[in-house]
Structures are given as structure tokens and as C-alpha cells.
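Quick note —
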Amino acid sequence: MATTSATQSETVDRIAAAAQRYAAASARIDQIAADTVGLTLSTCEANFINLLRLHGPLTPGRLAELTNLTSSGTTTGVVDRLETAGYAARERCTKDRRKVIVSLDDQRFHAEDAARRQRLSAVLSGYDDAQRATIADFLTRLADVEATVATPS
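Predicted structure written out below.
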């Protein structure tokens, strides 16, 4: 019984280390892309980009909520830098002209997304459909449980 527990613990450690390595490598790839426009991506900027990619256009207030920012000045500064670098655009809401919506320039990410998808497909090609479904389920559950901790109530 102790062997199974030790093996499971080692596997959890390997998965945790691999997740950290992936996050670090992904952040480096994001920074390489940002370097082309002279932007040093802060954690806030990277979070805004990821949230806009996941949720689509959002108000600055909602971006602040999702990133736990309490300063509207910080939110404005992050959006300003993303807009100046050509990553994002501000638009007036058509239903309520007082609202501003922040959206991403999806074309900016097309080449990077295609390259990442190609690398992911190459890795996944070594697994059968059932294994890929298990991997997708695991990553979805992991993201969901982490999101519950990271999302403000």
C-alpha cells in the first residue's frame, strides 16, 4: 500500500513540475511575441490578454474584477499599454455609450496560435483517442479547480 501512495505522490510531483515548466515556457513564448512590438509583458498584461482570449471583449471594470485589481488607474494603464502595442482596442458599447469595451486584435495571435496548436498536435499524436480524452478531462478539471480559487466571489 505504501508503494502505491509513494508512486502516486511521485506522479503528482511530476505533474506539478511539468505544469510549472509549461507555464514558464508559455510565458517566455508570450514575451518573445511581445518583444516584436517593444512590450515587456507584466503579469497584469498577460492576465488581461488571457482573460480577453478566454471571455472575449470585456469592460475594464470586469477585467479588474477578474484579476483582483482594485485600482482603476492600474487597469487603465494596462489597457493603455496593450492598446499602444496593438494588442487591444477600446470601443464604445453600442447599447450604452458610457461603457467602454476592451477587445483583442485576434489577427495578432493567429500565427502564434497556429504554431502552438501544431506543437500540441505533435505531442498528442502519441496518444490514442481515449488517452486524449483523459488528458482533456484532466486539464479541464485542473483549470476549473484553480479558477474557483482565483476568481473573486
